[in-house]
Amino acid sequence: MGSIFGKNIKISVFGESHGPAVGVVIDGFPSGFDIDFEIISKEMGRRKPTTGVYSTGRNEADEVEILSGINDGKTTGTPVAAIIRNTDCKSRDYDELEYLLRPGHADLSGLIRYKGYNDKRGSGHFSGRLTAPVVFAGAIAAQILNVYDIIIGSHIDSIYDAHDLRFDGTQITKDQLLMLRSMDIPVNDRSCREVYLQIIEGARNNSDSVGGIVETAIIGIPAGIGSPIFDNVEAKLSSILFSIPAVKGVEFGDGFGITRLYGSQANDSFYVKDGNIYTKTNHNGGINGGITNGMPVVFRTAVKPTSSIAKEQDTVDIKEGKNAKLKVKGRHDACIVPRAVPVIDAAAAVAVLDILMEHYGLEGFNKGMKYNGK
To answer: Cα separation of 109 and 95, whole Å?
Structure first.
């Protein structure tokens, strides 16, 4: 099934944008972990639309109904099932689009793949609405990781042609990442916030949209995690990140930029401090040979401009079999990047927990990862 991710922590996402609900079943969570529901609510709130210029007018409560797997605030070890009701759908906005293919969307590919039976309202199963259950799963996974001081955080590295300060790959702190998680527009350089908002507002006023890049850091992962060739850390993270709608690229460390360096510059030299081995730089993003080296894992995710725009575009009327014009109506984000940040954080948390469960096993987690060299 294409809607299932994971080997040890398995999540199965279901639902459509304008159906009764979206939801997730999570199998493999260790038992006995305390779950803070306020943290879950906060993470769901980070993904929700806001009153900002960048956001859609769709207003969903995103209240999670937990059906199983958590009792008295603790994980039971059995599958966690949860649903999130869709309460603010306006399916009539899509009536005119039944036969008009929306450029940038999965209308044509989905039509061919599912022979026309897919739910087209709000993009159905292809919608960003399906990221809500991923954020819920990630909110729990992140709480489990936090017990072992593994912290994930992101900033918006760029919107269109404006750029924030990149992470210093060797000096990323827990406080820095937690601060970013508390910001509506997470940036390292606070002046970037207004610049980003001005760019987004300009696109909206022009009936257009913009995209950007999110840079993510994961600190606290021990060295030696990952299983080459196909279960390596980069492969696992990339796999779930590319499941997020609108993601078109993922790079680790300097990514494509490392090709503009000499080997003497790209290699991360080692040194010893207090009996531990570190690297002086982190051009490789904390991963060598698909295995963590103990430095922060750093990656960047490219998020394309929102496909639904009010600007007139060329398309095809599949009923008439002829060329047509289209202006997409309804409520859409002028920039999806700020709302993609918590989804990326959540997806990374699920993937990292799955990787660690592979390395330590369920027993290792229940013992606090105190064996196998830890």
So the answer is: 19
* Three-class DSSP category at 108: helix
Place of tokens 């996402």: 13
* CATH number of the domain encompassing residue 265: 3.60.150.10
Please tell me whether residue 133 adopts helix, strand or coil conformation: helix
For residue 372, is it within any domain?
Answer: no
Confidence check: pLDDT of 374 > 80: no
pLDDT value of residue 36: 94
Q: Which residues contact 261 (CB under 8 A, 6 or more apart)?
A: 254, 283
Round the average pLDDT of the chain to a whole number and report it.
89
Residue 374 lies in a domain: no
> Strand pairing of 270-273 and 212-219?
unpaired
Q: Which residues pair with 214 in a beta bridge?
A: 156, 301
**Beta strand pairing status for 21-27 and 80-85?**
antiparallel
Give the amino acid at 282: N
Burial state string for 104-125 with b = 16 or more CB within 10 A and e = fewer than 16: bbbbeebeeeeeeebbbbbbbb
- The answer as to whether 252 is a domain residue is yes
**Residue 5 in 3-state DSSP?**
strand
Q: Indicate whether 122 pLDDT > 80.
A: no
pLDDT band per the 50, 70, 90 thresholds, residue 31: confident
Alpha-carbon span 14 to 68, nearest angstrom: 16
**Total number of domains in the chain:** 1
Instruction: Give CA–CA dist 198/212, Å, rounded.
Output: 14
Report the amino acid identity of residue 34. Answer: D
Helix/strand/coil for 124: helix
Domain containing 225: what range?
4-366
279-327 pLDDT tens trace: 999 999 999 999 999 999 999 999 999 998 889 999 999 888 999 998 8
Q: Give which of 295, 288, 308, 264 is closest to 100, Cα–Cα.
A: 308
Phi-psi region of 364 (alpha: psi -120 to 50; beta: other; left: phi over 0): alpha
Task: Check if the beta carbon of residue 308 is closer than 8 Å to that of residue 332.
Answer: yes
Find all residues with CB under 8 Å of 283, minimum gap 6, and list them. 169, 253, 254, 258, 261, 265, 266, 267, 268
